[in-house]
Amino acid sequence: MTVVEQTPVRAAPAAAPSAPAPEPDLPPDRPRRIGGFSRSGVLSLTGAAASGLCVTILLYGELAPFSGALGFALTAYLLFLAIYAVLTGFEEDGQAVRDRVMTVVLWTAATLLFSALVLVVGFTAWRGREALPHGNFFTQDMQAAGPLDPLTNGGIAHAMLGTLIMTAIALAITIPLGLACAVYLNQIPGRFSRFVRTIVEAMTALPSIVAGLMVYAVWILGLGMQKSGLAAGFAISVMMLPIVIRASDVVLRLVPGTLTEAAEALGAPRWRTVWHVVLPTARSGLATAVILGTARGIGETSPVLLTAGFTAALNTDPTSGPMVSLPLAVFNFVKSPQPTMIARGFGAAAVLMALVLVLFVIARVIGGRGPGHQTKRQARRTARASRQDVARFDELHAPGLSLFEAESPAEASATADPTASGEND
């Protein structure tokens, strides 16, 4: 047998670990500026605005047969956005460019809306400046004043009082129905509640003239009633009701579920939980919802035009006779060709806007407090009630009085010596 001698195979030496490649010099990370203005940003805005304006002037004046102020402004703005995006892209990445462009678009939209609001309010106040300084404008009606009379005669007292009466009637109908419906939608979910919520959302977009026609057909034509402030209040309540229901429903959804669970865990029934826990927690939001609905209904003209009639005299009875409101007075005043009547109309519109502004300010103040937030007076009242409860609980849980302390001295002595009475006998 031939023995083959095997030569051991040597393993290849392991490759020495290669030295790490030198990393390229990278610029240090810099945090991105989120808000505020920078020098480059201001220069980019200014340069983009100037470039867009110059290019638009060239297009409309020399290069293309374009015309029109609106087209000029729109073309200049679009070119401004495009040039601003290009200038920003030289220094920032794509995400930052989109952020800067959208910021400019949002600021532009906000500026346009605020400018429109200032224009409307300023124009109305300026046109009504002739009637507003006169005191009789707020204390007299138009029964003894004609279209040719000066502004020192006549006023809008009948329209102001009519607006307050109609709004009070609408609130008396809207507040209980709206809050009850919102509580039902929030506390009793189901198929019927979803149907009711759909109807409420559809009624939000209901044209005001349809509400006036409905009340006119049912109350005046169907039942034979006359035009009055009561019928106008019914029509205004139809417009206010969906606003109050939707806003109240949203507010009630924000009440923490742990509060209702805690109340039910203590054995409180559903109605007591709603009355003592849910509604007090959402009190500020519910007040805001009511005020927003009031601001919507107080400026309606179409329902009042069909249901209230028109009168130049002061009428304090909403059940008989026509009654006029501020929107209806504005509508009738501005139709006159006489300058004094037009001035009265714009003055009445300024008063109406001031009234709506006051309502929105009240809604903002009340709605600024979150659920459970109390004013200083409410906090003092709550602290005082808490101290009284603590004192009452201490009396209930105090150790019982001894028999001798509970009885009168004569009864205590008789109890201690039962033979005393017998000996006396």
TrEMBL record:
Task: Give residue spans, biased composition: Low complexity.
Answer: 8-18, 405-425
Protein family per UniProt: Belongs to the binding-protein-dependent transport system permease family. CysTW subfamily.
Task: Output this protein's name.
Answer: Phosphate transport system permease protein PstA
Disordered, as annotated region: 1-31, 370-389, 402-425
PANTHER family according to UniProt: PHOSPHATE TRANSPORT SYSTEM PERMEASE PROTEIN PSTA
Q: Which InterPro entries match?
A: MetI-like, MetI-like_sf, Phosphate_PstA, Phosphate_transprt_permease
NCBIfam families in UniProt: 3a0107s02c (TIGR00974)
What gene name is listed for this protein?
A: pstA
Q: What does this protein do?
A: Part of the binding-protein-dependent transport system for phosphate; probably responsible for the translocation of the substrate across the membrane.
- Where can this protein be found? Cell membrane
Cite the ABC transmembrane type-1 domain residue spans from the record. 160-363
As recorded in UniProt, coiled-coil segments are none
Source organism per entry reads Streptomyces mirabilis
